[in-house]
Amino acid sequence: MQVSLIVLAAGMGTRMNSDLPKVLHPLAGVPMLHHALAAGRALEPSRIVVVTGHEAQAVARAALDFDESIETVVQDPQLGTAHAVAQAAPILADAPGEAIVLYGDTPFVRPETLEAMLAARATHAVVILGFEPRDPGRYGRLIVEGDQLLKIVEYKDASEAERAIRLCNSGVVCAEAAALFSLVARVGNQNAAGEYYLTDIVELACAQGLSVGYVTCPEAETLGINTRAQLAEAEAAFQTQARAEALENGVTLTAPETVFFALDTWIGRDAVVGPNVIFGPAVTVESGAEIKGFCHLEGCHISRGATVGPFARLRPGAELAEDVHVGNFVEIKNAVLDEGVKVGHLTYLGDAHVGEFTNIGAGTVTCNYDGVMKHRTEIGRNVFIGSDTMLVAPVTVGDRAMTASGSVITEDVPAEALALARARQVNKPGLATRLIERLKAIKAGKGKS
Ligand code: UD1
Ligand code: CA
Questions:
Q1: I need a labelling partner for 327 at 20 to 30 A (CA). Which of 30, 87, 170, 345 fits?
Q2: What are the pLDDT digits (tens) for 357-374?
């Protein structure tokens, strides 16, 4: 079955009280918009169209960051949800099969729920996703008769009797793409808000003798984010769920309530995660790896048997092969560490490759930035980098080589060589105590004057 997704993301989100468009506010480490896109992408849609409007370019960029194949269309001005869907019509004019409408500010709809809507299409021309919230508030209300949906009334337009209805509209719609666009084209704006309501397609479809049905889901899935308070609630809900899932999947979390996951965090079975670990986007951790407390990880891969932290920072492009050890106060960025590499303490490795079983001494820095450009450091296998080595990139250290501690390495080191790049030590007998006596005398003299 061919499916097209239409994700509405043109609204301003006034109640966020923000310069940033609502759908770009981060939720679980990624723009809010990515959540709805991820749920929709699980259906393997052939086309995804994001309707942008407010800050259209920034929203389009975020959509393309999620998936380069996404198409975007600008809705200007924003005249309502039906008008928003209509903007996708030219793009999807020749798209056969189903269309599903999602909202960029409704992040938690599950793929299984969307599947249930597609299944309900066997008996209904249009399927709407409904739910029964604890507080129906200002949601649109579903007017039903048996399994038939007759009408959706927006809160602003509803009578007292209609407002008493508890079954509400989530906004998610599923219909054959061609039918959806022909219905949307006929929606008018004679209502309290003067907007083109997507919800009006229900009555229009019924008037045409088409069957309109509905599927329901728990309120947690349809949580719409309109305020910062709701954003914070959504973050908490996401983290609670992600922690439970990690535990369920066989990950040990010693203090689950202190660990924060991103939308796409992937952790294998029997991995161990200590307290206060933060996962930014795009982190994968293989089975049996251990992340100790207070680590900050983002855009990195940690292989089986590796140990990281406490207090380590892995930034985008950090790739740790099997049995790598990264210790405290170590930062790794855009660097590949081959099997068995040890980087124990106080080190920065950026734009680098480190060969198998190499040991990086405490306080080592790859000096990758010259103030204008970035340069690479290549370190071979079984190398011993002495403590406090500055590797001034671009530079290469050959296999089985060593650097003396305190060296500033500016030239390539051949394989098996020892590189010494520091001043030779000179000892002056007795000079330390003579110096101290002289300084004490100077201080005493000053005190008198
Ligand atoms: C909408 C529904 C309401 C439902 C509620 C669920 C309509 C008319 N009403 O109301 O029945 O209970 O969602 O949360 O559909 N958008 C655009 N272009 C526009 C207008 C909106 O892209 O011109 C986007 C918004 O960015 C947002 C979504 O559509 O992502 C919903 O719009 P919003 O104004 O929040 O609709 P509600 O009034 O909440
Ligand atoms: Ca809304």
A1: 30
A2: 999 999 999 999 999 999
- Do 196 and 280 have their domain in common? no
103, 105, 189: which to mutate for ligand 1, most atoms within 8 A of CB? 103
Q: Which of 174, 206, 222 is the last residue of a domain?
A: 222
Both tokens assigned to 51 = 């309707």
pLDDT one-digit tens code per residue, 137-180: 999 999 999 999 999 999 999 999 999 999 999 999 999 999 99
Query: Taking phi first (over 0 means left), then psi (-120 to 50 degrees means alpha), and beta for anything else, what does residue 108 get?
Result: alpha
Does the annotation mark 325 as catalytic? no
Given 222, 242, 263, which residue is the final one in a domain?
A: 222
15 CA to centre of ligand 2 in angstroms: 10
Cβ atoms of residues 301 and 317 within 8 Å: no
Distance CA 61, CA 24 (A): 10
d(CA 19, CA 36): 22
Residue at 68 is within a domain: yes
- Report the atom number in ligand 1 closest to the C-alpha of 198: 15
Residue whose entry in the numeric block shows the structure tokens 């993301």: 9
The residues placing their C-beta within 5 Å of ligand 2, an ion, are 224
- Look up the domain containing 9 and give its range: 3-222
CA-nearest residue for atom 3, ligand 1, is 140
431 lies in some domain: no
Q: Could you give the CA distance from residue 445 to residue 440 in angstroms, rounded to a whole number?
A: 9
- Which residue do the tokens 């201080």 mark? 443
Q: Ligand 1 pocket, 51 CB below 6 A?
A: yes
Q: How far is the CA of 359 from the centre of ligand 1 (A)?
A: 57
**How many domains, the chain?**
2
Ligand that lies nearest to the alpha carbon of residue 170, given by its number in the listed order: 1
